[in-house]
Amino acid sequence: MRGYRVAFFITLAAALLLAGALTVVALRPHALDDIIERVKAKGTTEAPPVRPETAAIPELVPVTLTPERMQRIGVKTGTAEYKQVHDEIRTTGTVEVDETRLSEVQVRFSGWVQKVFVDATFQPVRVGQPLLTIYSPDLVTTENEYLLAKQNRDLLARSTVPGVASGSVSLLSSALERLKQWQIPDRELAELEESGKVKRELEVDSPASGLIVERNALPNMYVQPGTKLYSVADLSSVWVYAQLFQNDLGRVAVGNAAEITVDS
Question: Partner of 166 at 20 to 30 A CA spacing, among 21, 146, 180, 252?
Fold first, then answer.
């Protein structure tokens, strides 16, 4: 019974609200249109755009640190400046002789080694320093031929016989050319020219300054043309074969005058 009463009052209230609305519409025919227009205008109103920078970046607040606090947390300051940056790569490698600074000591004639002045490997030498002496029968014979041709040239220079004077000059030139092809030092040729005597032993000097890295010369050893007697290496510039990781290759330039420290 109570439920019917509640339903009756709800129905009555709805009827009264509907009657009031109809009365307003009847008194103001355009009131409904005004309500609809207001709803449309309100729905099409756009909200003002939000600036992303103001929405993403919070307000900046200055921070003040005391010297004690900066020292405690390890803050360091410095002056900004341009300077050369040095990079260091620690690796392993092999140091070898620069092949362009390696000199071989050889002779172009056969003979026997007599005296050996440099008799140890890794001994330092300077350019022009005597290394050994060698006796060569072929060299002695050629020097005698040179002196004999020189005497004949002086004796036959005033000869009236056709071809005699020119023949003696040709023999002298031939002997001198053979000595030069054997790379006899100029000082030996000058001494032979001045003294007129043949030296039994020829002194072989170092062609460069450096370190003896190989020695094959021994007393009383027979040598032939092309026999390697010494190897002299100039160690003022060496080659280093280093092992690098692939990601470090871009930090190393070929031919760059970089500082290399060798840990012994």
Answer: 180
Q: Per the structure block, which two tokens stand in for 8?
A: 């009756």
Report the CATH fold assignment for 94-251.
OB fold (Dihydrolipoamide Acetyltransferase, E2P) (2.40.50)
CA distance 154 to 29: 154
Residue 220 DSSP one-character state: T
First to last CA, the chain: 113
Q: Which two tokens stand for residue 59?
A: 């307000």
Burial 17-36, CB ≥16 within 10 A → b, else e: eeeeeeeeeeeeeeeeeeee
Contacts of 69 (CB under 8 A, 6+ apart): none
- Between 235 and 63, the more confident residue is 235
Token pair recorded at residue 147: 């002196």
What is the reported pLDDT for 5?
64
Which residues are CB-neighbours of 149 under 8 A, at least 6 positions away? 168, 171, 172, 174, 175
- The model's pLDDT over 80-138, given as tens digits with 9 standing for 90+, comes to 888 887 778 888 888 889 989 999 999 999 999 999 999 999 999 999 999 999 999 99
For the chain, the domains span 2-44, 94-251
| Ordered DSSP codes for 37-97 | HHHHHHHHPPPPPPPHHHHHSPPP------HHHHHHHT---------PPP------EEEEE
Report d(CA 111, CA 223) in Å as an integer: 6
Element (H, E) at 214: strand 210-215
